[in-house]
Amino acid sequence: MIIVMRRHLFYILLLGMLLAPAGIYAHEIDLNHAYRLLDEAIGQSERFVQVREQRIQRCKAALEVTTDARARYELCRRLSDEYRPYMNDSALHYIGRCITLARQLGDQAGVDECSIQLAYQCSESGMYQEAMDILNGIDASRIGDAQGRQRYYGALEHLYSELGYYCRVPDMQQRYYAMHDYYSSLIDTAGLSSDQVLQLEEMRRYAAGDAQGALRYSDMRLSRVREGARDYAIVAFYRFLDYSLLGDSVQTRYWVTQSALSDVKNAVMDQGAMWELAGLLMTDGDMDRAYRYIRFAWQCATKFNTAKRNGQISPVLTAISDNYEASLKRANRLLLALAVVASLLACLFMVILFYSNSQRKKLSRTRWRLSETNHRLAQLNSRLSDLNGSLSETNLKLNESNRVKDEYVGRFIHLCSFYIDRLDEMRRRVNKMVKGRDLDALYRFTEGSELRDKNLSELYGMFDSTFLHLFPHFVADFNALLKPECRITLPEAGVLNTDVRIFALIRLGIEDSGRIAEFLHYSVNTIYNYRAKVKNGALGDRDDFENQVKAIGM
């Protein structure tokens, strides 16, 4: 068997070297060009998501009208594959349905295969105990085919690899890695595809610290995949790890960017490469691009919905927040310095004025000169008054900004605590359903949008009450800017409608229609139409209407 395995691996290596393009890395790497391509792809991400959603809807429509159990099983497999990198909860749901249908068909091999896939998805999303329980519940002795056994050992290898990577207890980490090595040794490469063999060898070289050896296998894998495909993203991510081990910073950033680009084009919400890239850019000092990428990765992670990925992204978000706090402190120090300078100028002015008056009384012969001096002092006084007025206005705006910030920070902390409690309650409820294997109840619980609508209603209620607490006369002042027939009457006291809520966000400094659309869950075009409709009813110049709204309460 060992001779057959070695011969099989030799042929794969020989074929890979023949097929690998000789000039694949001959071009000079332009990281800025790679970043621009990624920026363009992020701008078109909604279109890529629509493509995946259309495939999902076609499968769901076929599932609704299909009565044959085997055909329903295959459709559920396709849906689980579509959801696997897209929405974790839905992927788990459809894998569970596959297991149920396989049992109904009496297909024990299908039950085992789908259970292994379910365990792999659980470990991939950080649900390690669930994955362990599923794999422990599979009788490995009844898996007759070689490929099934490879999948089973591969799932165990992946589980212990994840546990070892994220464990911070040295003794347990060594034990997890020992189990990983054990199950890795059980994988018979003769039963794997050529790419699986190459990936396994690449991982082994990487684990041994042999970056050059890992890259040789990666080169062969790269020659077999189409650029931009989902498989290409996976190969590119492994190359990123290999070059990180090698210490090549340019290649590291290039390949993690290529992986992120392929993920975006394939509507992959499990954006591991994107947050890795954001962390590297933050290290490089490119904070603007790092913020855009980590924000996009956070949005994707929210849709994919796993605590594991959220926990990985949080430290990068925290670092960006710390950088913002440092910038704010620098601005405050500058403002204090300006205030000190202004005070010194005011004191200097008082000294000059006193000196001039005393000199005017003593030196009557210099009256003309003193008159000219007084005229100049008057001009200086006017400039100082203007400066004091500007400083007063700036202080008022800063005080208002700090008041709004403090209020919203307090409300935000309260809201975060509230939703953490609610998520924990939902976790316990879902966990109870999963333990009881009550999949129907779990499906009903996650099927509707009532929970989402309720959360949005509570969020908007919290926003409305906070905003009206800060600006109690906003609605009246807002209507005063409109023609009588265009003025807005709220349906309920203390509750804003969509028109007023949009301009409340503008008053808070959120002017971008995209950000307003994200908060209110409308399309950008809808937000634009709302803004245009209200501005058409303005009493004065419609182009200056939003500036007048931003001045309310000042």
What report would you give on this structure?
About 80% of the residues lie in helices and about 0% in strands. The protein has about 550 residues and is mainly α. Helix 1 (about 1-20) crosses helix 11 (about 210-220) and helix 6 packs antiparallel against helix 7 (about 130-135). It starts with a helix and ends with a helix.
Q: Please tell me the overall pLDDT.
A: 81
Using only C-alpha atoms, the radius of gyration works out to: 32 Å
- What is the helix fraction of residues, given as a range? over 70%
* Strand/helix succession: HHHHHHHHHHHHHHHHHHHHHHHH
Biggest sheet statistics: none
**Tally of DSSP helical segments:** 24
Quaternary state of the chains = single chain
Shape: elongated
Structural class designation: mainly alpha
Count of strand segments? 0
End-to-end Cα distance, whole Å, is 82 Å
Describe how the helices and strands are arranged.
Elements: H1 2-19, H2 31-43, H3 45-65, H4 69-83, H5 88-105, H6 108-124, H7 128-136, H8 146-166, H9 170-186, H10 194-207, H11 211-222, H12 230-246, H13 249-265, H14 272-284, H15 287-304, H16 307-362, H17 367-435, H18 439-447, H19 450-470, H20 474-480, H21 498-507, H22 513-520, H23 524-536, H24 545-550
Keywords:
554 residues; mainly alpha; 24 helices; 79% helix
